[in-house]
Structures are given as C-alpha cells and as structure tokens.
Amino acid sequence: MAHAFPRLPVLLSVLLLAAVFSVPVSPQNRGASGSAAAVPAQKSSGSNDAPVKAALITASVTLGGIIVKDLIFKLLEEHRASRRAEAAVYERYSKPLAASASSLLIRMHEIVLQRHRPVYLNCVGVPTGNGPAPTFRAYKKLSTLYRLSSLIGWIRACRREFSFVRVASHEENAPIDEAIDEFERALSDGSWVEQERVVRLIDLWKLYSLADLQSAHDLLEELGVLIDNAIYDVLEAEKVADLIDLPAERQPNVCKKIAELLSSTLHTNAVSHASIQTTYPEAFRILAMREAWVYTDWQHAIGDMMLRRIEGEDRRFEVLGYGEFEQVFATAACEPQHLLRRVCEVFDGVDLSIEDRFDARPRQLRRVARATASLVTAMHAAQRPQSIISPRQLKLATTILAEVPKA
Predict the structure, then answer these.
(1) Of 287, 309, 337, which one is at a domain's C-terminal end?
(2) The pLDDT of residue 2
(3) According to the model, what pLDDT value does residue 407 have?
(4) Quick check: is 86 in a domain?
(5) CA–CA gap between residue 72 and residue 298 (Å, rounded)
(6) Are the C-beta atoms of 255 and 276 separated by less than 8 Å?
(7) Domain range for residue 363?
(8) Is the dihedral of CA 383, 384, 388, 390 positive or negative?
(9) Which ranges of 170-295 does DSSP label H, i.e. alpha helix?
(10) For 241-267, what is each residue's pLDDT tens digit?
(11) Do 196 and 182 have their domain in common?
(12) CA distances from 288 to 26, 201, 213, 254, 300 (A)
C-alpha cells in the first residue's frame, strides 16, 4: 500500500486546479438587471477576472511544486530507502542460507542416491569408540545432524528478520519461499502416513474398493485421523511410547479394534476372527510404521537453539559452528539435548537401500532432499551472477530433482 501514497498529493493538486478554473464570475461584475446590461457586464467580468485567475493558477502551480518536491519526492525516497534496506538484509542472509542449503544438499545426495555410502545411519545415536571406522562414522552422523540443524537455523534467522521475508516473498523470489515451505513440511507433515495406513489396511482386509476410497479424499482423511487417534489411545492406555513396544500377546486386540473402527465407519461387514488371527502381524506392522516428525514449532525451537545474536555486524544472527554444536551434543545435561534427539531420530537406523514399507522416514528424507535441491536452484537463480553455488552443487540439485521421485 505504501506505493499508493504519492498519488494522493497529485490528486489534490488536480482537484485544486479544477476548482480554480471553475471559479464563478463575481456578482459585482454582473449587470443590475435586464438583458441589455448583461452584455457589457460579461465583457467587464472577463477582463477583471483574468488577473485573479492567473494569480490563483500561479499559486496553485507553486503549491503543486512544493507538494511534489517536499512530499511526493520525500515519500518516493523513503520508499526507495526502505526497499534498499530490505534488499541489503536479504543479501546478508541469502548467501549463508545458500551455503547451508548447498552443504546439506551434498549430504542428502549421498543419502538418497548413493546406496552403499550412508552406512553411518545404521546406528542409533552417534557411535562412540576408537579406531578409524567408528570415528569416521560418528563424524558423518553428527555432521549430518549439524547440516540439517544449521539450515533450520538459517531459515529461522531469515523468518525472524521480517525484511528478509518481505523481499523473499516478492514475485521474482517466490520459488525461494516455496522451497523453504516445502522443506519445513517435509520434516513436519505426516498426513500422508495416516492415509497410507488406511489404504493398506483396507487392502489387507478387503473392506472397500480402493479406487472408490482414493477418490473420496474427505473419507480417506477422516479414517486416517480416526486410526491415528485410536493408536494414541492405545499408547496412553498401555503406557508405552511406541506401538512397537506393546507386548506381542496384546497386538491382535489392537488390530481387532482398528478393524472394527474401519468396518463401522465404512458400513461394511466386520473382519472375521480367523482373518484377524491370520493377518494381525502385518496389520500391526502397518499400524506401528516408524515415524520421526520434526514439527513446525520444534523446528523453530531448534532454529533458535542454533542461533547466536551478534552485535556490531550487518546481520543480527549467526548460526553456531560445528565445534560448538559438537560440544552441545556431547553434553548430556545440556538443555538442547532433547531438541537434537528429535533431529537424530530422523536418521537413526534408517536404510534407504531397501524399500521398507514399515518406515516412513525414507520417503520423508527423499522429500527433504527434493526441497533442499529446489532451494539451491532457486537461490542460484536469484543470486545470479553473484551466486555462490558452484556448478557441481547445481548439478547435484538437478540430479536429485530428476532422479528422486516426488513423495
């Protein structure tokens, strides 16, 4: 709306000039009565009013000049100064954001496309021990956590700098904002898991036409939420953190409860006891599909943890370095430990070399890889010809977008 304000004084000047030209003839210059006296009165009016009109026009032009000079130009200059300040903030944050995204991109390319390299993800947590292999794998795992957390930190810094968000949301930089949104959703949004559970259970128990179900999006979403709530109820009642921790003898009852929920909602025949006994091992594994979502507010908290306020610099924020991150991770009593564990769970024991139908994280990581690649290509396009993204990094981004399927 700020760009519309300079038009207001111009409009006022136009209205003032229009008023001047519409000034009526003074009554003193009109004839007293009769049509015969009217003719000389009009001639006299024209000659006497001309200096008045000229003076008013001159005053209006002068006033208009003052308005243009002192108000319009001032508003325009303030607008330009504001845009220059926003652009400067964007410039200061865009380069570290691009560098951080490129660093994560290299690691994500290794994880999702180099099948036998990411063996360091097979362990839970960060491995300890002496020797070249444990040391190297510990470094690779921890640096993966750092690269992901670092990018979350820079995104958080950008969002805290309102000016950056305003500039990044301009039409020419819309792909940057879209890639950041997709990156955050890839880490936090598990709604597709809810729906995939429904589809696979209905297919397992032959309860409903899959074609009809998948075309009825509202019904599919409703069933996903119902099953998710039922799982949470079981966890709370059994006082376990995860379904996989439930004793084996109680697993058939959980599957029976979910089958009854589906059949009653879909108004179909119930799943037989014999079918439950035969299918419950696979049904339970579908229900217990492993997930490790880093929800939006958790991302904000992780980003805040990664930031350090700096004084006397162009930027207000800096992301902590790898050495400090390593110290934080190694300090068991440190407050941010629970945040870093949530990041670590995304990678713990994940194996992208196989198609694991009971683990949502491979698909999650592929979405993260694609979003990171989109961010790198968008930043490169926006920064050109000052882009800090190398041709090799750009090629990796292009490869990921071409070879990693959309989740």
Answers:
(1) 287
(2) 44
(3) 72
(4) no
(5) 46
(6) yes
(7) 92-189+293-403
(8) positive
(9) 174-188, 191-205, 210-215, 217-238, 251-266, 273-287
(10) 899 999 999 999 999 999 999 999 999
(11) no
(12) 93, 12, 22, 11, 27
Judge if 305 and 183 occupy the same domain: yes
* Alpha carbon distance 210, 199 (integer Å): 7
Same domain, 210 and 325: no
pTM of this structure: 0.77
Same-domain status, 61 and 137 = no
**Domain presence at residue 43:** yes
Fill in the DSSP letter of residue 24. P
Query: Tens of pLDDT along 176-189?
Result: 989 999 999 999 99
In a domain, 218, yes or no: yes
Round to whole Å and give the CA distance between 381 and 375.
10
User: 389 by DSSP, 3-state: which?
Assistant: coil
**Bond prior to 27 in cis (omega within 30° of 0):** no
Query: Do 281 and 398 sit in the same domain of this protein?
Result: no
Task: Note whether residue 269 is domain-resident.
Answer: yes
Shared domain for 277 and 297, answered yes or no, is no
Give the residue from 84, 94, 81 showing the smallest Cα distance to 386.
Answer: 94
Residues 368 and 108 sit within 8 Å (Cβ to Cβ): yes
CA distances to 59, 324, 366, 381 from 73, in Å: 20, 50, 51, 33
> Do 274 and 207 fall within a single domain?
yes
Distance separating alpha carbons of residues 324 and 141, to the nearest angstrom:
16
In the block, which residue shows the tokens 């670590």? 344
Would you state the structure tokens that stand for residue 157, as one six-digit string?
């810094």
Last residue of a domain, one of 287, 302, 330: 287
Is the separation of the CB atoms in 74 and 5 below 8 Å? no
Longest dimension (CA), the chain: 120
DSSP code string of 143-196: HHHHHHHHHHHHHHHHHHSHHHHHHHTSGGGHHHHHHHHHHHHHHH--HHHHHH
The domain total for the chain is 3
Instruction: Indicate the Cα dihedral angle 111, 113, 115, 121, nearest 10°.
Output: 10
Q: What angle do CA 352, 358, 362 make, to 5 degrees?
A: 30
* Residue count of the chain: 407
Tell whether 67 and 164 lie within a shared domain. Answer: no
